[in-house]
Amino acid sequence: MAQPLMPHATASWLVDNTSLSFEQIADFCGLHILEVQAIADDTAATKLTGRDPVRAHEVTQSEIEKAQANPDYRMKMTKGPEQVRRTKGPRYTPVSKRQDKPDGIAWIIRNHPEISDGAISNPIGTTRTTIAAIRDRSHWNIANITPKDPVTLGLTTQRELDSAVAKAAKATGGNADAQPTDTRLEGDREALLASLRAERDQQSRDSDSIGHGDIIDPHSLFRS
């Protein structure tokens, strides 16, 4: 069933401006009756600004009046014009998830280096400049970027990611699974491991030297 564009704000307006029951408002707005009760009691987490569904052409005044006269009646939304879907440009990402984008980009670069920057920018919803900065490790926050699956982060769907991988494999004329892994994001880790190995080897040599002691030339005891 179709619902108002802003269900909570619409419910707030209906509570304040009509005599509809909580059940009728909850049904129309697609909310739980307890949510409507909280809005009516002003116990919602955020004070809502009401949104008039009549002015928004989501329901007619006559439909509201009919529902007010009959508590068992459930209002029906006015069928509005279909929204135009945007087909170009970067995808909108909620503010709460924007900080996860670099991690998702880094994961794709590490696990699927064959995917072009342009193919990454569409599903993730970012710019090629950002992707290039992460790829060459010049991003301002590169030290805090940790590769994480963008599907798990909610930045894209598994279907979109699989499609990007398949297209990249087709473009390169091979199997995406056979592509080498981009290890540039792990450069710091490899340097650290090399340093630790060198330190361990030195400690081992020092230990051997202490265990065996210095070799004394017996002839040196008779030299003056």
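The above is record 1. Record 2 follows with the same two-line structure.
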Amino acid sequence: MPDLMIIVATTRPGGVGPAIAEWFDERVLTHGRFTPRTVNLAELALPFMDEPNHPRLGRYTQQHTRDWSDQVAASDAFVFVMPEYNHGFNAPLKNAIDFLHQEWARKPVGFVSYGGVAGGTRAVQMIKPVVSCLQMVPVTDAVAVPFVQNCLDEHGRMKPSEIHDGAATTLLDGLARWTAALRQP
């Protein structure tokens, strides 16, 4: 079964990204076409780019970069669970992407975004040219969680609607199709 890396993009203390990722991980398991693995950028704690060589060369000098490279290279597909900050995506996600180059290529990426009224959709539109430049394939279908605070229970867990669950299934179906297509020799 293909490996799906779920990347929690927020590093803000108290951020809701981990709760949304936990819900999405459960959806992946129910869907049954991927083996999910969640990476929380707050726990990964990559510094801002500290490699002396361009990532395209793959000549990494830092152990944290080599470890991140191994994790990304081993993944077949990705989902970014991402907030929207000021109509854009956050710096830690861009930094995590920029550390590497070839490891991302020819792999599909989906988006689970959250925020206020727009549900993170503006951030998703801003990141698509970035991932496309790396030869990733952004899946058109996505999950948007508007007014995210209204989608959490009293314990801070995601309480999805039927719309969220349906969107997650559609996103995973698209990721599965692209993953299969991109794995062809």
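Residues 55 and 100 are 5 Å apart (CA to CA).
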